[in-house]
Specification:
alpha/beta; Glutaredoxin; 7-stranded mixed beta sheet; 20% strand
Length: 177
Protein backbone atom coordinates (compact mmCIF):
# COMPACT_ATOMS: atom_id res chain seq x y z
CA UNK A 1 0.00 0.00 0.00
CA UNK A 2 1.19 3.52 -0.69
CA UNK A 3 -0.15 6.78 0.68
CA UNK A 4 0.86 10.31 -0.18
CA UNK A 5 -0.27 13.86 0.29
CA UNK A 6 1.35 17.25 0.14
CA UNK A 7 3.06 19.27 -2.55
CA UNK A 8 1.47 18.66 -5.92
CA UNK A 9 -1.37 16.26 -6.58
CA UNK A 10 -2.22 13.65 -3.99
CA UNK A 11 -1.56 10.07 -4.91
CA UNK A 12 -3.29 7.16 -3.26
CA UNK A 13 -2.44 3.74 -4.61
CA UNK A 14 -3.69 0.20 -4.17
CA UNK A 15 -7.24 1.22 -3.24
CA UNK A 16 -6.27 2.85 0.05
CA UNK A 17 -8.69 5.32 1.59
CA UNK A 18 -7.70 8.96 1.39
CA UNK A 19 -8.66 9.67 5.01
CA UNK A 20 -5.71 7.86 6.56
CA UNK A 21 -3.23 10.71 6.42
CA UNK A 22 -1.86 11.01 9.94
CA UNK A 23 -1.02 14.74 10.03
CA UNK A 24 -2.48 17.72 8.22
CA UNK A 25 -0.34 19.73 5.84
CA UNK A 26 1.01 22.73 7.74
CA UNK A 27 1.26 20.90 11.07
CA UNK A 28 4.45 21.89 12.93
CA UNK A 29 7.27 19.36 13.27
CA UNK A 30 6.58 17.55 16.56
CA UNK A 31 9.17 17.33 19.31
CA UNK A 32 11.37 14.25 19.29
CA UNK A 33 10.79 13.82 23.04
CA UNK A 34 9.95 10.34 24.19
CA UNK A 35 12.48 8.25 22.29
CA UNK A 36 13.75 5.38 24.41
CA UNK A 37 17.24 5.65 22.88
CA UNK A 38 19.18 7.64 20.27
CA UNK A 39 21.92 6.61 17.85
CA UNK A 40 24.03 9.02 15.82
CA UNK A 41 23.04 11.96 17.99
CA UNK A 42 20.69 13.05 20.74
CA UNK A 43 17.24 14.58 20.79
CA UNK A 44 18.85 18.02 21.19
CA UNK A 45 21.17 17.33 18.24
CA UNK A 46 18.28 16.19 16.03
CA UNK A 47 16.23 19.25 16.91
CA UNK A 48 19.19 21.59 16.30
CA UNK A 49 19.92 19.89 12.95
CA UNK A 50 16.37 20.31 11.72
CA UNK A 51 15.88 23.92 12.85
CA UNK A 52 15.56 26.20 9.79
CA UNK A 53 16.16 23.32 7.36
CA UNK A 54 13.87 21.23 5.17
CA UNK A 55 13.67 17.91 6.99
CA UNK A 56 12.74 14.37 6.03
CA UNK A 57 11.65 12.24 8.99
CA UNK A 58 11.39 8.56 8.17
CA UNK A 59 9.83 5.82 10.27
CA UNK A 60 11.21 2.31 9.77
CA UNK A 61 11.21 -1.05 11.56
CA UNK A 62 13.76 -3.84 11.72
CA UNK A 63 11.08 -6.36 10.65
CA UNK A 64 10.03 -4.30 7.61
CA UNK A 65 11.51 -5.55 4.34
CA UNK A 66 10.29 -2.52 2.36
CA UNK A 67 11.94 -0.25 4.93
CA UNK A 68 15.27 -2.04 4.50
CA UNK A 69 14.92 -1.89 0.72
CA UNK A 70 14.38 1.89 0.92
CA UNK A 71 17.06 2.77 3.51
CA UNK A 72 19.89 3.02 0.93
CA UNK A 73 17.84 5.51 -1.09
CA UNK A 74 17.15 7.62 2.01
CA UNK A 75 20.91 7.57 2.76
CA UNK A 76 21.64 8.64 -0.82
CA UNK A 77 19.22 11.59 -0.56
CA UNK A 78 20.63 12.51 2.85
CA UNK A 79 24.14 12.72 1.44
CA UNK A 80 23.36 14.19 -2.00
CA UNK A 81 20.91 16.85 -0.81
CA UNK A 82 22.62 17.98 2.40
CA UNK A 83 24.35 20.90 0.69
CA UNK A 84 20.93 22.04 -0.54
CA UNK A 85 19.81 22.11 3.10
CA UNK A 86 17.95 18.80 3.51
CA UNK A 87 18.23 17.19 6.93
CA UNK A 88 17.12 13.66 7.76
CA UNK A 89 16.00 12.07 11.03
CA UNK A 90 15.27 8.35 11.33
CA UNK A 91 12.79 6.87 13.79
CA UNK A 92 12.85 3.13 14.42
CA UNK A 93 9.30 2.17 15.38
CA UNK A 94 8.80 -1.45 16.42
CA UNK A 95 5.89 -3.39 14.95
CA UNK A 96 6.52 -6.57 16.93
CA UNK A 97 8.12 -7.41 20.28
CA UNK A 98 11.22 -8.68 18.46
CA UNK A 99 11.66 -5.21 16.92
CA UNK A 100 12.38 -3.75 20.37
CA UNK A 101 15.82 -5.42 20.52
CA UNK A 102 18.12 -2.38 20.57
CA UNK A 103 21.18 -4.44 19.56
CA UNK A 104 19.42 -5.56 16.38
CA UNK A 105 18.53 -1.92 15.65
CA UNK A 106 22.17 -0.91 16.29
CA UNK A 107 23.39 -3.59 13.86
CA UNK A 108 20.92 -2.48 11.15
CA UNK A 109 21.90 1.18 11.61
CA UNK A 110 25.47 0.17 10.82
CA UNK A 111 24.53 -2.21 7.99
CA UNK A 112 22.29 0.34 6.24
CA UNK A 113 24.55 3.36 6.81
CA UNK A 114 22.05 5.31 8.92
CA UNK A 115 24.34 8.17 9.93
CA UNK A 116 21.57 10.67 10.62
CA UNK A 117 20.18 10.91 14.16
CA UNK A 118 18.05 7.82 14.76
CA UNK A 119 15.49 7.65 17.56
CA UNK A 120 14.30 4.33 18.91
CA UNK A 121 10.58 4.58 19.65
CA UNK A 122 10.00 1.43 21.70
CA UNK A 123 7.19 3.10 23.67
CA UNK A 124 5.52 4.56 20.52
CA UNK A 125 5.65 8.11 21.88
CA UNK A 126 7.01 9.46 18.58
CA UNK A 127 4.44 7.43 16.68
CA UNK A 128 1.81 9.29 18.72
CA UNK A 129 3.52 12.69 18.30
CA UNK A 130 3.55 12.23 14.50
CA UNK A 131 -0.04 10.95 14.61
CA UNK A 132 1.03 7.76 12.85
CA UNK A 133 -2.05 6.03 14.25
CA UNK A 134 -2.00 3.30 11.61
CA UNK A 135 1.62 2.47 12.48
CA UNK A 136 2.82 2.94 8.90
CA UNK A 137 6.36 1.80 8.13
CA UNK A 138 7.97 2.94 6.08
CA UNK A 139 6.47 6.39 6.58
CA UNK A 140 8.01 9.64 5.36
CA UNK A 141 7.22 13.14 6.60
CA UNK A 142 8.65 16.14 4.74
CA UNK A 143 8.83 19.44 6.63
CA UNK A 144 9.90 22.79 5.17
CA UNK A 145 12.56 25.08 6.66
CA UNK A 146 9.88 26.68 8.83
CA UNK A 147 9.12 23.27 10.35
CA UNK A 148 5.69 22.85 8.71
CA UNK A 149 4.56 19.55 7.20
CA UNK A 150 4.55 19.78 3.40
CA UNK A 151 4.17 16.16 2.38
CA UNK A 152 3.56 12.69 3.74
CA UNK A 153 4.00 9.34 2.03
CA UNK A 154 4.02 5.75 3.22
CA UNK A 155 4.48 2.27 1.90
CA UNK A 156 6.38 0.67 -0.92
CA UNK A 157 6.11 3.64 -3.29
CA UNK A 158 6.38 6.31 -0.61
CA UNK A 159 9.82 7.52 -1.65
CA UNK A 160 8.80 7.66 -5.31
CA UNK A 161 5.88 9.90 -4.39
CA UNK A 162 8.02 12.11 -2.17
CA UNK A 163 10.91 12.63 -4.59
CA UNK A 164 9.33 15.44 -6.62
CA UNK A 165 8.10 17.19 -3.45
CA UNK A 166 11.66 17.22 -2.07
CA UNK A 167 13.08 18.47 -5.35
CA UNK A 168 10.49 21.25 -5.61
CA UNK A 169 11.02 22.29 -2.01
CA UNK A 170 14.80 22.45 -2.35
CA UNK A 171 14.54 24.35 -5.66
CA UNK A 172 12.10 26.97 -4.37
CA UNK A 173 13.39 27.36 -0.83
CA UNK A 174 17.16 26.84 -0.93
CA UNK A 175 18.89 26.87 2.43
CA UNK A 176 22.57 27.39 2.93
CA UNK A 177 24.41 25.26 5.44
Amino acid sequence: MAVANGLGPSAIADGAESNIMPMRIGTPLPSFAGATEWFGGTQAHAEAETRNHPTLVHFWASSCGICKDNLPRVAEWRDEKREQGLRVVAIHMPRYESDTDVETVRDLISKYNITEPCAVDNEHKLREAFQNDQGFVPAYYLFDAEGKLKSFAAGERGLDMLKSAIERMLATDPVTT
